[in-house]
Amino acid sequence: xxxxxxxxxxxxxxxxxxxxxxxxxxxxxxxxxxxxxxxxxxxxxxxxxxxxxxxxxxxxxxxxxxxxxxxxxxxxxxxxxxxxxxxxxxxxxxxxxxxxxxxxxxxxxxxxxxxxxxxxxxxxxxxxxxxxxxxxxxxxxxxxxxxxxxxxxxxxxxxxxxxxxxxxxxxxxxxxxxxxxxxxxxxxxxxxxxxxxxxxxxxxxxxxxxxxxxxxxxxxxxxxxxxxxxxxxxxxxxxxxxxxxxxxxxxxxxxxxxxxxxxxxxxxxxxxxxxxxxxxxxxxxxxxxxxxxxxxxxxxxxxxxxxxxxxxxxxxxxxxxxxxxxxxxxxxxxxxxxxxxxxxxxxxxxxxxxxxxxxxxxxxxxxxxxxxxxxxxxxxxxxxxxxxxxxxxxxxxxxxxxxxxxxxxxxxxxxxxxxxxxxxxxxxxxxxxxxxxxxxxxxxxxxxxxxxxxxxxxxxxxxxxx
Length: 466
Fold this sequence. Notes:
Blueprint: E1 2-4, H1 9-15, E2 20-24, H2 28-36, E3 44-46, H3 50-56, E4 62-63, H4 65-71, E5 76-80, H5 85-92, E6 102-105, E7 124-129, H6 140-151, E8 155-159, H7 168-180, E9 187-192, H8 202-208, E10 214-219, H9 231-243, E11 246-249, H10 252-260, E12 268-270, E13 290-295, H11 298-301, E14 315-320, E15 331-333, H12 339-345, E16 350-353, H13 364-368, H14 376-383, E17 388-391, H15 397-403, E18 406-409, H16 415-420, H17 424-443, H18 445-465
Parallel strand pairs: 1-6, 2-3, 2-5, 3-4, 5-6, 7-8, 7-9, 9-10, 10-11, 11-12, 13-14, 13-16, 14-15, 16-17, 17-18
């Protein structure tokens, strides 16, 4: 086979333009591919479990490897849609029918912004993992950080991990490659929590001293503090503390709580708010509704299913896991969207930042987490120029008020009176402020500044090491 790893998605799309695309693997990675490239016509899916898959994908053609051998010709292109690509490639390369077959690996396709992963700086790196596309923006923030760091001269070290069940060798090789490719006296950005939970990160810890490596930890979430933590969450928290030299934290509240838990406050940088990269100026549709974007699973945001108790306020919901069998006159559910599509679909007057199981306050593990968290939905709202409404005890309430980009409330029951009290001039001012701050978010300015501050701290650390 003609293996084409680490190439741009543009090269892949050009190759398949007039050819038949076969995908090897019909599981979670394949679903991710369909989500991101919904316009692509898949000729057939090669999967040994095709009988079970057909039931859930009636519009797709599933075949086994023998059928693929019979069909494969110079008009065929293969895309491996499995994490464990090394094991699959080994097996397929033994089949002579595939000698001239162009073969791509889905999660190794690079977009235009990351294909040039090498910069002129040989001492700045960032660890980058494959993350599944979803409609809760868990992939958006790390991807934005990767692009911002790339623009600041950080070479990308892709961690092409495999699954725990079949891809242990691949994961081991991936971590070894990362470790071997880091030069002496380098800085390394790591985004926490890691997707990989095989403890491969300890390979980084082992070389830290020998290579005089300094690590900037960019914290997306501290899962031990958000309710129902797992054993893996505690292990990630432990390695975060053990391995990092500087921490980019969400806000002052997170900084203070980490300090109480033994982290050095002098090695923390306050991000203030997450950026939200958008290539084009967004245009939000006019509507009087309050936008709520996010995950509407009842275990996380059960307050959503009580919004019918808030009179004279309309809510526009955008996100996954909403039980749309529930019908309320004041709730409009628009479906789930990937980040790029979401910003084109938003409709409303404000964006709401709330969480938990109550209308009266943000309660429960998920609600209380707002006391230290920078919600990514806050960044989304402001990035598109929307004024926001946020719980007054949330960590980011102070940012919202200081920047003049929205309102704070104690209870969702306060919404009718609060909205009524806002004059047209006051709303216009908040919107203008949101547009100003949104420009910075769309350009990645907050993360850029935080990384530069972290580099200065590391520079001082290196001086004291001599």
